[in-house]
Amino acid sequence: MSTTLGTALVTGASSGIGATYADRLARRGHDLVLVARDTDRLALLAARLSEAYGVKADVLTADLTQRPEVLKVAERLRADPAISLFVNNAGIGPKGPLKQENDLDYLDRMVELNVLAANRLATVAAQAFVGRGAGAIINTASVVALAPQFFNGTYTASKAFVLALTESLAQELQGTGVRLQAVLPGLTRTEIFDRVGGSFDHIDPAKVMEVGDLVDAALAGFDRGELVTIPSLEDHGLYEAYVSARNAMGPYLTLSRPASRYASASKAKVDA
């Protein structure tokens, strides 16, 4: 039942974006390793995809907020030479603004999953793929990584981490045969809102993308070789302009002397 495309390991695969990635990758002919906490849902998904597409689908149950469980998945990435694609998708979303959040332990779990687990697994996958001379990592970030003022600070920061990690790794791994992609979803119709007690009822439907459309667009961006894919962004030139403006600051970010405006302000204070 194995395929020539190799195996894709997908975290957060029991529902939503992860389950849809699993479906689309199986349709393309990838074997699968499906990772999430819910063994029963994973088993049902694995059986359905195996029957529908004739691929091999393994279940690897893991709670990625728990370090031993993260290490278990990391070992699978490191030890299984058939794995050629890692979809680093597991994550949880915010319940509301930080000023109203009483469950600070929940925020800690968000960082453990969205940052610590994502970082460990991406790094292990990168090292493994470099050793094999080929492979690809798809990291699920969010559009809020580019617009932190609009959303919960811990969640936004966690997704900004994922975006920065992807961009840095892509630069570091040039010439190794390993590809990187960060996918930046906007509002997407998945279970993530239900899990934190929210809903889409009060949100303009024109702002909410169906999960199948999201993953199809993300994979189209992957096929085009995009480093960063924003599925709803019609004019990619807007993102290119953003990157150009950011890069223009590069020569001035670390110099031997402070900017003159700070020196002037300091002198004026002394004179006063």
From TrEMBL:
Entry-linked InterPro entries: NAD(P)-bd_dom_sf, Sc_DH/Rdtase_CS, SDR_fam
Keywords for the protein's UniProt record, in alphabetical order: Oxidoreductase
The keyword Signal belongs to this UniProt entry's keyword annotation: no
A GO molecular function held by the record: oxidoreductase activity
Family annotation (CDD domains): SDR_c
Similarity comment text for this entry: Belongs to the short-chain dehydrogenases/reductases (SDR) family.
Protein name per UniProt: SDR family oxidoreductase
Native source species: Rhizobium terricola
